[in-house]
Amino acid sequence: MSATHNTFAVTGLTCGHCVGAVTDELRALPGVSEVDIDLVAGGVSTVTVTTSAPLTEEQVTAALDEAGNYHLANI
């Protein structure tokens, strides 16, 4: 089974604590093996998730909601 890389633009991240909260919630999703976040404090951060299967926007949105006030960017 090959890994799938899913990249999402996310708003609301401002610090390392935010990165940790989002990382923890995304890692809890089924099949997720790695989460990498390029933090742009107060802007649009790039979140790359490595999984064994593609993630849906609904799964990511739910994880972001659980982590705090973070949202997929409308780019």
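The record above closes out task 2.4. Task 2.5 opens with a second protein, given below.
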Amino acid sequence: MFNSIKTSKENKIVVTELSRKFNLGAENIIARIALAYSLSQDRLLSLTDIADSQGKEYSKNVLFGNNSSYYIGLICVKYGIYKTDKDIPKYVKLHIDDGLQLMNKELRSNPNLNGYDYLIDKITHGLERI
């Protein structure tokens, strides 16, 4: 399917800043959160909006660990596609880049935000929507 994903050039800096600010672990943790956060939004992204691939590179194993089937499943459900669809890597990239931008925007509007409070707020908000 795919071996690696690269963020946009702009998001190479963003993922480093978010990782340092939120202090939740390695940069791949922030990328996972960004992917999940973007997928949780009530909208579909267009493949025509895909950004450059000159940023941070993540191998499939580093990005997903042993959970790649779950992340790919989330994308398949969101877009109504099958797990072997050739566009899955593009959707992963789109949503990581989008999630990083969403998280960065929130951090800019609230510089005192810390990682654990951010996660708890997102989890609580998600549970309230159910």
